[in-house]
């Protein structure tokens, strides 16, 4: 065999064994955690919206100073409209929409991370086929050029060349991933901080409107007697469950968002060091599964309360 | 005052608001003085107005910050999409090179034929 080819193949074989491909599993888990956290905060936001809206109806209706004109929308040019004193639930609706947009952008980012880390992007099959095609084409070319070669030499060359291409792309992929993780660490931190801020706002909002929600129940309870008090009693217990479930979801989401920036930084460390312990992401993933159960219960209770 | 400080304040005020209402309920249940109950109700109304104003302010600030971050994440996602497209193009280029090598045979045969003429 040509000496140069032998050296080339040996160097490539060494380089290939020294470059492990990226494990996409932690990226998939991280993606799932971000989606669950987003769904959790959104479900709490929905309950917050419903409570604040019904709280507004209750307090506005019972306030003797209320006037009907305060409920009327002022119509402006084209699609514009406003209210002199817009009720707070409208701000919540807009915030929920902004939260949805932000969550979509962020899950877009984590989806892209999964795509970039996924083996599907650089499938082994593609490079095996590349080696086979190259082997055939170099055999033909060598024959045409009348270069004396053996099938083994050509096969080794084809394998090494396709591995070189794979290695080049794999290195590029790892570089891109590390770069993306590094560049977005601040965004992830900001995302986490913003979501925690929103959780605290929702918490304050819900504590206030819990009072607004139970006041009509209390009035109904006071107005009734004997068996007729069962219905408002039931309603109060259901409201309490909803309130404590919502606080539970908010608390769990806060834990998740607090841990997300470190988990994101760990992804980058795991690419550089295959032995890096990803226990943090695993725990976060388990916590997000717990969160999923909590917010599903919350959503169901909220729907039941509207029936 | 930062958003964090304001949201902590809302949390504190809402806790007071809930306790104040509970106090009013107790006062009513124990036949407390109507003046005292009316005083609690007035304090409650004032506190509620403060909380609502603060909440409106917080939601508006939050939406501004969220929109700013969303723009940054969107721009970063565009960059990542370009990286993925580059990798897919590299794979395509490697396949094209191998394909092109297959034509060498034909080109040389053609050259030989031309030389024989």
Please provide a written account of the structure.
The model of chain A has no long low-confidence stretch (mean pLDDT 87). With 307 residues, chain A is mainly α. The longest helix of chain A has 73 residues, at 151-223. Chain A has seven helices and two strands, in the order H-H-E-E-H-H-H-H-H. Chain A is elongated. With 117 residues, chain B is mainly alpha-helical. Chain B has helices at 3-29, 34-116. The mean pLDDT of chain B is 89. Chains A and B meet through helix 3, helix 4 and helix 5 of A and helix 1 and helix 2 of B.
Given helix and strand content, the structural type of chain B is mainly alpha
Q: What is the total tally of β strands of chain A?
A: 2
Number of strand elements of chain B = 0
Shape of chain B: rod-shaped
> Biggest interface, and residues per chain?
A-B, 59 and 53 residues
Structural class by sheet pairing and helices of chain A: mainly alpha
Number of helices of chain A: 7
The helix count of chain B comes to 2
The run of helices and strands of chain A is HHEEHHHHH
Q: List the quaternary state of the chains.
A: heterodimer
Low-confidence stretches of chain B: none
Number of domains of chain B: 1
Amount of beta strand of chain B = under 5%
Question: Please, what is the average pLDDT of chain A?
Answer: 87
Task: State the distance separating the first and last CA atoms of chain A.
Answer: 81 Å
Main sheet summary of chain B: none
């Amino acid at each position: 065999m040509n000496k140069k080819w032998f050296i080339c193949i040996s160097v490539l074989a060494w380089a290939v064994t020294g470059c492990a491909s990226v494990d996409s599993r932690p990226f998939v888990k991280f993606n799932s955690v971000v989606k669950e956290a987003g769904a959790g905060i959104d479900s709490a936001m929905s309950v917050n919206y419903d409570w604040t809206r019904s709280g507004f109806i209750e307090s506005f209706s019972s306030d003797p100073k209320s006037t009907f004109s305060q409920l009327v929308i002022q119509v402006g040019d084209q699609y514009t409209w406003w209210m002199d004193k817009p009720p707070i639930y409208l701000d919540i609706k807009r915030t929920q929409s902004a939260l949805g947009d932000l969550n979509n952008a962020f899950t877009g980012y984590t989806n892209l991370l999964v795509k970039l880390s996924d083996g599907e992007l650089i499938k082994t099959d593609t490079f095996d086929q590349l080696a086979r095609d190259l082997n055939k084409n170099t055999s033909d070319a060598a024959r045409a050029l009348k270069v004396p070669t053996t099938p083994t030499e050509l096969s080794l060359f084809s394998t090494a060349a396709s591995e070189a291409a794979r290695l080049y792309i794999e290195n590029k992929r790892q570089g891109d991933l590390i770069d993306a993780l590094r560049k977005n660490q601040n965004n992830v931190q900001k995302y986490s901080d913003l979501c925690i801020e929103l959780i605290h706002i929702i918490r304050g909002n819900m504590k206030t409107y819990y009072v607004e929600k139970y006041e009509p129940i209390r009035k109904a309870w006071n107005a009734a007697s004997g068996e007729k008090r069962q219905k408002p009693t039931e309603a109060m217990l259901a409201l309490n469950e909803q309130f404590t479930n919502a606080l539970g979801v908010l608390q769990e989401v806060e834990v998740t968002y607090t841990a997300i920036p470190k988990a994101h930084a760990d992804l980058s460390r795991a690419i550089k060091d295959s032995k890096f312990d990803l226990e943090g992401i695993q725990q976060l993933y388990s916590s997000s599964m717990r969160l999923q159960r909590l917010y599903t219960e919350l959503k169901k209770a909220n729907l039941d309360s509207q029936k | 005052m930062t958003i964090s400080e304001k949201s902590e304040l809302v949390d504190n005020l809402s806790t007071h608001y809930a306790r104040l209402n509970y106090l009013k309920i107790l006062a009513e249940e124990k036949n407390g003085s109507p003046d005292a109950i009316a005083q609690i109700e007035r304090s409650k109304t004032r506190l509620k107005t403060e909380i609502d104003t603060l909440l409106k302010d917080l939601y508006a600030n939050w939406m501004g910050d969220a929109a700013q971050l969303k723009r940054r994440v969107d721009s970063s996602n565009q960059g990542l999409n370009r990286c993925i497209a580059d990798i897919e193009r590299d794979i395509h280029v490697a396949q094209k090179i191998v394909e092109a090598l297959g034509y060498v045979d034909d080109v040389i045969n053609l050259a030989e034929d031309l030389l024989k003429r």
